[in-house]
Design a protein that fits this description.
heterodimer, A: 390 residues, alpha/beta, Quinone Oxidoreductase, Chain A, domain 1, Rossmann fold, 6-stranded parallel β-sheet, 21% strand, B: 260 residues, alpha+beta, Alpha-D-Glucose-1,6-Bisphosphate, Chain A, domain 4, 34% helix
């Protein structure tokens, strides 16, 4: 079968590889009908995530048709159409039982690596380095889905693939980011980053009752989407003093909550700290570039919440912790507990409250995925979200 | 352990109180002494034939090993308070004497009741399902069992063991019988964890590797360090008990495998 494989920094190729096999009783094999490239896949392309190996199959946003199930998978049948959460979770451990699915104890075969880095292991993830288990991803014609009895959600026949695909990651991720803000009536939510997760965070903030959403980015088509699709007020990274502007827009109070939907590779316009971060990361003095996070902490109102769906992996430099402490901020973050959100969000889609396919700007064949990575990385051709059809 | 009377303190030695058979300087076991002498000699010859500074360093190292082998005295063991020269105890309740071998202790919390975990462990034939270095355990009856384990570098090691201290739903202890290649003993303890957290499982393993303490270091070089091993074993035990399987990617597809 064809699969998109990682071979090194800025080197991904579509290769012929063997088809996946059932390895455990709770596995299923899915024939992938749609898969997407995620912003976090770009961290892999850019070599920011350690423990990648040549030949790793990428992709953690995928859906398809069940073609084979292991002996312990009783809830799925061959032929079912399912969306697959990017987090692999067992459903049995302390964390899964408390709906903290991305913190699952039992699904990372390489648990020793995150234990060294982070103290404890978290859940296995599809196609996202050996630190998170080394599971083959779904940018392929077929994929093996472990713990298929608790992960995948069946998609009703009247929904299109493209309406359901983003249940696998970015819709729940944006939704959890907004939910973490504990939005109350009258709240203003500021969102850094208008990529796909930012777009879903904007929509979700309104769904959860925010009065205003202010979105911040520098890419014109993303700002435009936040304005038209998301009904957000928008600010441009490049030509505004974000903090002053946010303060001004909120009557001097600051946003009630701030969402960092950018993560470790913030570009941060031409600001001094952003250049410093880039230099340090290049010299391996720091691993992440947290410009958006600094701004979010600085801008957030007293007693407010900073919610972080953007991915961080290592050690962050010059975080204004004094501001966070003195203002009594609340921090909420982490990989998304996708399984918790699948059914409620599927219902929002079925009820017509949201159609997640609005973020799609590009549709390509799996064979053209390397080209897709290229234009997505370089934000060419007004690219916001690419969907691949194997 | 009940062996404090056989352990030799430095003061005892200094006061000349060493029992019969011990001399003040011998702190390396018989087999190890031979290994040191032969290996050291080979290293010295090899080092001298190199004719380089590195070769001279190797030769010096070899010479010190020969010294260690012929005198039976190891300065490193001395400094570390280790003595592998003592004879095995006659005490039938001690498989691994105090002060000898390697002791490993690890804990994990498992979301199951103490009873479920106890019953699974009590059948020693289940152990190879999560202890990867075990090839097979066969229960031979009467609380006895035969164990086959993978040793370093493709070898295998076998021994007979008996369970000797069972407290229902609380503790299982076992130890190897006399004449085992690897003298070892272990126990597992099951304690209820706080509200809704299942059971705290603590494993204590003690074993005397074939080439003494040095053997454990050699095993570490081969990536088979006991501490790491038991940690991974307990992780798999937890996975098996909580999820019914152990998480794996072994055998999955990738761009590294040959094209289909």
């Amino acid at each position: 079968m064809k699969a998109l494989c990682w071979f090194g920094k800025n080197d991904v190729r579509v290769e012929d590889v063997p088809e996946p096999k059932i390895l455990n009783p709770r596995d299923a094999i899915i024939r992938v009908t749609r898969t997407a490239i995620c912003g976090s896949d770009l961290h892999l392309l850019d070599g920011y995530i350690p423990t990648m190996e040549r030949g790793d199959i990428l992709g953690h946003e995928f859906m398809g048709e069940v073609v084979e199930v292991g002996g312990e998978v009783k809830n799925l049948n061959v032929g079912d159409r399912v969306a697959v959460p990017f987090t692999i979770s067992c459903g049995n451990c302390f964390f899964c039982r408390r709906e903290l699915w991305s913190l699952c104890d039992n699904t990372n075969p390489n648990a020793a690596i995150p234990e060294k880095l982070y103290g404890f292991t978290t859940a296995g993830l599809f196609g996202y380095s050996h630190m998170t288990g080394g599971y083959a991803g779904g940018q392929a014609e077929y994929a093996r889905v472990p713990f298929a009895d608790v992960g995948p959600v069946k998609i009703p026949g009247h929904l299109e693939d493209e309406q359901a695909l983003f249940l696998t990651d970015i819709f729940p991720t944006g939704y959890m980011a907004a939910e973490n803000c504990d939005i109350r009536p009258g709240d203003t939510v500021a969102v850094w980053g208008c990529g796909p997760v930012g777009q879903f965070a904007i929509k979700s903030a309104y769904l959860l009752g925010a009065s205003r959403v202010i979105a911040i980015d520098r890419v014109p088509e993303r700002i435009e989407m936040a304005r038209t699709e998301g009904r957000a007020e928008t600010l441009d990274f490049d030509d505004e003093y974000i903090f002053d502007k946010l303060k001004e827009m909120t009557g001097g109070r600051g946003p009630d909550s701030c969402i960092d939907a950018v993560g470790m590779e913030a570009h941060g316009g031409g600001s001094f700290d952003a250049y410093l971060d880039k230099a340090k990361a290049a010299a391996f003095l720091a691993t992440d570039r947290p410009h958006a996070l600094r701004q979010a902490i600085h801008s957030c109102r007293k007693g407010g919440t900073v919610s972080i769906p953007g991915v961080y992996g290592g050690f962050l430099d010059k975080i204004p912790f004094g501001a966070a402490f003195q203002k009594g901020l609340t921090f909420k973050m982490g990989q998304t507990h996708v399984q918790k959100y699948l059914r409620p969000l599927l219902k929002l889609i079925e009820d017509g409250k949201i159609d997640p396919s609005f973020v799609i700007t590009h549709r390509m064949r799996l064979e053209d995925a390397p080209q897709g990575y290229h234009i997505f990385k370089n934000k060419q051709d007004n690219c916001i979200k690419i969907v691949l059809k194997p | 352990m009940a062996t404090s009377e056989t352990a030799l303190t430095q003061e005892q030695i200094d006061r000349g109180e060493a029992p019969q058979g011990y001399t003040r300087d011998v702190n390396v076991g018989e087999i190890e002494r031979w290994a040191s002498a032969i290996g050291g000699g080979a290293l010295a010859v090899y080092g001298l034939t190199r004719g380089t500074y590195g070769g001279i360093a190797l030769a010096l190292l070899g010479a010190s090993l020969v010294h260690r082998g012929t005198t039976g005295h190891c300065y490193a063991y001395d400094a570390a308070g280790v003595n592998t020269a003592k004879s095995a105890s006659d005490n039938p309740f001690v498989s691994v004497e105090g002060g000898r071998g390697v002791k490993v202790e690890k804990s994990v919390t498992i979301n199951r009741s103490p009873g479920e975990l106890y019953n699974f462990w009590l059948n020693f034939e289940n152990l190879p399902r999560f202890m990867n270095h075990l090839e097979e355990v066969r229960v031979t009856g009467d609380g006895r069992s035969h164990w086959v384990a993978k040793g370093p570098a493709g070898t295998s090691v076998e021994w007979d063991a008996e369970s000797y201290n069972l407290k229902e739903n609380e503790m299982i202890a076992w130890r190897s019988l006399e004449g085992s290649q690897v003298a070892n003993a272990g126990s597992v303890h099951f304690t209820p964890a706080p509200e809704g957290r299942g059971t705290e499982v603590r494993v204590v393993l003690k074993y005397d590797p074939p080439a003494g303490v040095l053997g454990a270091w050699v095993a570490k070089l081969f990536g088979e360090a006991p501490e790491q091993q038991i940690e991974e074993d307990l992780r798999r035990f937890k996975q098996l008990m909580e999820t019914g399987e152990t998480a794996t990617v072994t055998g999955q597809t990738s761009g590294r495998t040959a094209g289909a």
